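User: quick one
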Amino acid sequence: NFLTKTILGKLDIEKCLTSVSTGGSTLLGYIGIDTIIEQMRKKTMKTGFDFNIMVVGHSGLGKSTLVNTLFKSQVSRRSAGWARDEKIPKTVEIKSVSHVIEEGGVKMKLTLVDTPGFGDQINNDNCWEPISKFINEQYEKFLKEEVNITRKKRIPDTRVHCCLYFISPTGHSLRQLDIEFMKRLSHSVNIIPIIAKADTMTTEERQEFKQRVRKELEMSGIEFYPQKEFDDDMEDKSDNDKIREAMPFAVVGSDKEYQVNGKRVLGRKTAWGVVEVENPNHCEFAQLRDFLIRSHLQDLKEVTHNIHYETYRAKRLNENGGLHPISSSDTQESNL
Amino acid sequence: MTSNIRYKSRIPVKTEDSTEEKQYVGFATLPNQVHRKSVKKGFDFTLMVAGESGMGKSTLVNSLFLTDLYKDRKLLNAEERINQTVEIIKHTVDIEEKGVKLKLTIVDTPGFGDAVNNNQCWKPITDYIDQQFEQYFRDESGLNRKNIQDNRVHCCLYFIPPFGHGLRPVDVEFMKALHEKVNIIPLIAKADCLTPNEIKKLKDRIREEIDKFGIKVYQFPECDSDEDEEFKQLDKELKECTPFAVIGSNTVVEARGQRVRGRLYPWGIVEVENQSHCDFVKLRNMLIRSHMHDLKDVTCDVHYENYRAQCIQEMTSKLAQDNRMESPIPILPLSTPDVDTEKLIKMKDEELKRMQEMLTKMQQQMHDKDQ
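Assistant: Done. Structure below.
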């Protein structure tokens, strides 16, 4: 039904109002339809958000630290501190950990999916397969819930909304593994490439590297988020164009604070100065955070639901000429 | 050079005393004579650099030797590198300083560790090192030994990425494949992205893992007991500092009123030659100013001898298998310094063969005739 759909999707009040007026009757007086936004807001605040973010990149690129910095809390499964007692796993593992964080009355259940072992072996052939499999499994789970006769009120959403891919700051170009991974997965999940440990490069080196990386991504036909084909309208396109031009963001993460010019800032202290994480002259962390959390968080979920998930669903429906539950372990039988 | 000063201090000063004159033979000047001769001859040194691309190897080499060896290098992008295998590229440069000539050869290994599947990616490198040993072995056993060219690799700088938490599987495998063929000096590359604490932890971790995996990296020789305290202290500091965390730079920046080699960041300036910023100076001093000769010695006395012993052993066992006892002494591969004589020998061989064939034919004909 119309109202429920718009709560989950983008609400366009203008469209609603014009359709009413072109229907024949002009509005006489104030009805109060626009309060729906407030009602929506109240509801979502009560129910809270789910957000699932995956981090991919070989070990040591600061993935856990960056996520902790982004959400200003210890959300990664590694505890604070640098010491790492775990060995590099022999195959790629998928490890999820969830936390509920709250801000301004809004609760968010943040799930971080880590992929230790990716790219760390001598032979990394097909190391992207466990990751691809995991992503598809989440779509499958959601699909099964959706086709049930008695559906849950709110289907638990474990689908990966965003995959942060960490590029090693060599200063030269992308590595072959980077291209292989992004080529294969950019059609099933939103990939946001970022340049890790950006304090390795001077400002000049960073710009050159970014340009080279962007060119390589283009040449390989890798569509990272925000994808051009999903821009809704001109306004979206112009906003997203600006972001696409600035990507991949070169970031530095830190969970330690230092005193700089009388202020306490998150940073990394070296013998020659303090790298300030949130200083736009030092690195692009603030840009990434604003983009990821403050402006496009909801859009990431929508693109995952409306596009990636739908693609998966359509594919599955076309297989076997209809949807039957795949795994025999599932007792629910449903036929469409 | 430090070695100079040390030798000089040992020469006894000739006094006016005639009894001393009688006892003074004069061979204490030998080191000086050796020194003069080697200065005339010049030195050569072959240094190999290995590690993934983007570790700053070229920049470090340029910083160490104050050259620009890689001016015309073109960096390949990922698509172009898909089918690239590990290559071996040599750059040679002649450097002269205060009358001393050095022929420096840098062996570069582009492509190492860059592919998705890096199985055995060190094989071209071990093959190259073995080839140089083999070449030297042949030359040494040959007839004309006057102008043997020593292309053996004296030292391999291995660049470990600073982004990891210690040694990666590829690092361990590489070093294990090479530690008995060449002097390996592991370095932590691009150390300016680490805080001092992180560097310390990484160094400890790497040292631990090197022990754990039984990797034999180049060991600094022990100080002689008669060295002065200052030298001993420096030596101790050097040993505790490994693996060196280095930074290189091709650019000159202005720092603290001076023009130095460095990297300019928005948050500060990293000076390559500042000991509190990185271990570049320690590496340079060790590599060039104090241990260059020792590196060559260890290559000759240990790695090459190992190779040679192995080679001879293989040959004798092969001969025993073939059961050919033409000579009691194992036959060394004769080097062929002269292409012309080889051709001549070949010609004569063929002539002999032909004559033998003719002889057997004639014998056959006579035999048939008889019948």
